[in-house]
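re: ur question from earlier - yeah i can do the single chain one, its not a big deal. heres the input i used so u can compare w yours
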Amino acid sequence: MPKLLLACTLATMAAAANAAAQPILGVPDLARLPEGLSDLRAIDGLSWVSCDVVEIAAFEDRSHVRCANGRGEGTASQPPDYIAVDIRANAGLAAALVTAGTRARTGRTPLYALIHNNPRNNPPGCDAGNCRGAMGFVVE
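and the output i got, formated as tokens:
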């Protein structure tokens, strides 16, 4: 058992050292982010995207926004077609998405979203081919 613990500890330390060498994700130039959010690293599996909101919706299982500038599942420079939050798992964040999306659309300003790159983190009803789950938003 001690050998396994030592191996796990060494693997964790190696992963942490590798993570420290990863470049910091690019944050949209105009976004003023809460302290600490701009320090998320690529290894965290998250990306900041800028969404031009054209639709805001809430369903039984999720809320989402549709991005006019979306491209399928999204790329490094383009958001996905849809950005969503699981209502059952995080009702407060799902409500915040509706509020922020409405503000972005009516104010004609981008919605900056911190999205999961991996579709396994998508909420129910969020298709892997055109949607990504989110964990944060900024609207100026």
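The chain is about 25% helix and 25% strand. not sure if urs matches, ping me
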